[in-house]
Amino acid sequence: ETGVTQSPTHLIKTRGQQVTLRCSSQSGHNTVSWYQQALGQGPQFIFQYYREEENGRGNFPPRFSGLQFPNYSSELNVNALELDDSALYLCASSLGGIYADTQYFGPGTRLTVL
Amino acid sequence: AQSVTQLGSHVSVSEGALVLLRCNYSSSVPPYLFWYVQYPNQGLQLLLKYTTGATLVKGINGFEAEFKKSETSFHLTKPSAHMSDAAEYFCVPSNFGNEKLTFGTGTRLTIIP
Fold first, then answer.
1. CB distance from B98 to chain A under 8 Å?
2. How do B44-50 and B19-25 pair as beta strands?
């Protein structure tokens, strides 16, 4: 069984640029959730995708967007990067629907915005 | 709304000593309670979870937690601390595990050699 993977591991961007982060779900999972973790804080929910549809969103501006693909992998896109977007971005996969269960996290992508 | 309180943002224990990380939940009991651990510069790993049934839950790496309804607590314990236990620990409530998780700031565990 393959766990949750994320790419890239680290990323450095400058203010105003755009970034795409990727997440591969654990085998058999159909739901992906994205979280932002600023230094010294707990993760904050960005949004969730279930079977390719957005299924809930946290308090993040529209420049944070996502996609989920038919194989249930996912992307997080952030436009017009700001310095405060520097954080660890975590994705978590889980089984949704009537068999909803635990979220399993990937290792994260560390984004630095200069 | 469901919520948890982790008592102590920083906890230090000596290697070999008992680890006790406290978590109290609000009176609106969530069906699920999780403990996640985050090692330095890594993602989150599920330590253990309580859903229904047995109130004593055993997790990975020798950790366990007991759901005590009378005390509204779900404290995490390990009989003997190891240096590798140094990490951030999060107690997280959930309705059914799959919806958005609300994390607090966690408890940072330091192990003293």
1. yes
2. unpaired
**What does R_g of chain B's alpha carbons equal in angstroms?**
13
Reported as a pLDDT band with limits 50, 70 and 90, residue B70 is confident
Which tokens is A57 given? 């969103």
Residues A105, B100: C-beta atoms closer than 8 Å = no
Q: How far is B35 from chain A (nearest CA, A)?
A: 11
Residue B46, chain A, CB below 8 Å: the answer is yes
pLDDT score of A27: 86
What's the confidence (pLDDT) of residue B105?
83
In the structure, what pLDDT confidence band is assigned to residue B97 with cuts at 50, 70 and 90?
low
Nearest to A99 by CA among B96, B30, B54: B96
- Tell whether the model's pLDDT for residue A36 goes beyond 70: yes
Q: Given an 8 Å threshold on Cβ–Cβ distance, is B43 in contact with A108?
A: yes
Q: pLDDT at position B104, please? A: 84
Rounded CA gap, B11 and A28, in Å? 37
Q: Which of A47-61, B19-33, B40-54 has the weakest average pLDDT?
A: B19-33
Find the CB nearest B101 among A6, A45, A107. A45
Q: What order do you get walking across the sheet with A74-78 strand by strand?
A: A5-7, A19-24, A74-78, A64-68
b/e for A66-103, b at 16 or more Cβ within 10 A?
Answer: bebeeebbbbbebeebeeebbbbbbbbbbbbeeebbbb
C-alpha radius of gyration, chain A, whole number = 13
CA distance A33 to B92: 15
